[in-house]
Design a protein that fits this description.
Largest sheet: 8 strands, parallel, barrel
CATH architecture: Alpha-Beta Barrel
Structural class: alpha/beta
Helix content: 40-55%
CATH superfamily: Aldolase class I
Order of helices and strands: EHEHEHEHHEHHHEHHEHEH
Bound molecules: 2-phosphoglycolic acid
CATH topology: TIM Barrel
Distance between the termini: 11 Å
Number of strands: 8
Low-confidence stretches: none
Radius of gyration: 17 Å
Number of helices: 12
CATH class: Alpha Beta
Strand content: 15-25%
Strand order of the largest sheet: 1-2-3-4-5-6-7-8
Length: 253
């Protein structure tokens, strides 16, 4: 299975000039560094999706949305449907990022509806799950992860499960500089895999990619991805620096 490196650019690249500079340096550094390595998915703000698809999409680079809505069309001011994202050439969509859960009160039920919408439109969902600092301190990590998974996967059939990518993102590690040990990551990966085996059987569960996300950089990628044998990483801040992002890609490729 090819490793996957997702760049979540969040609410950045504020001008056309800034966006174009990013794209130029990404292309330049990609040619030098990361060709033939891990699969790359870049998730820019929605206003830049089309330009990213036009400029970067190729065999090994895909574009994804940072969020989608579950309805296809209609009176949902401000929302963007999975079909719209698919129709402009995206292949992936991040669903249930902890910042969406925190600032927009997204629930596991919302996330379930978004996953089903993405799957219906042939977009690959990158589903984020993870515990808070308090939950970890209270020893509730496995319980929280299992509840998030069970609720978000309600009515997702076995024929679709291998299309979903999961990103284990401890909330306390996102946007901070704290990271879990590789044993802690491995433990959560086993919890996720076990639940998928119980729900969908071993042969489907083994094909599901499980990433790590939260303060990933080129210096800690061995600890958070290589050692716990994750299938890739989800990168926030460092994805804004193409050179650094592509260094991560080449280290795990
Ligand atoms: P970070 O963000 O790498 O800046 O911690 C991670 C994320 O958005 O999931």
């Amino acid at each position: 299975m090819k490793k996957l490196v997702v760049g979540n650019l969040k609410m950045n690249l504020l001008t056309v000039a800034e966006r174009d500079r990013y794209l130029e340096s990404f292309q330049r550094d990609f040619e030098k560094k990361a060709k033939n390595s891990a699969e790359i998915v870049l998730c820019p703000p929605a206003v830049h999706l089309e330009k990213f698809v036009e400029t970067l999409a190729q065999e090994n680079i895909f574009v994804g949305a940072q969020n989608i809505f579950w309805e296809e069309r209609g009176s949902f001011t401000g929302e963007i449907s999975s079909l719209m994202v698919k129709n402009i050439g995206c292949k992936y969509a991040i669903i249930g990022h902890s910042e969406r859960r925190k600032y927009f009160a997204e629930s596991n039920e919302d996330i379930n509806a978004k996953i089903k919408s993405a799957l219906k439109d042939n977009l690959i969902p990158i589903v984020c799950i993870g515990e808070s600092q308090t939950e970890r301190k209270n020893g509730e990590t496995a319980e929280v992860i299992m509840a998030q998974l069970n609720q978000s996967l309600s009515d997702v059939p076995i024929s679709k499960i291998t299309e979903i990518v999961f990103a284990y993102e401890p909330i306390w590690a996102v946007g901070s500089d704290a990271i879990p040990t590789s044993d802690e990551i491995l433990e959560v990966k086993i919890t996720i895999r076990k639940l998928l085996v119980e729900k969908y059987g071993a042969s489907a569960a083994e094909k599901v990619r499980i990433l790590y996300g939260g303060s990933v950089n080129s210096k800690n990628v061995a600890q958070v991805c290589v050692e716990p044998q994750m299938d890739g990483v989800l990168v926030g801040r460092e994805s804004l620096i193409p050179n650094e992002f592509l260094k991560i890609v080449s280290l795990i490729g």
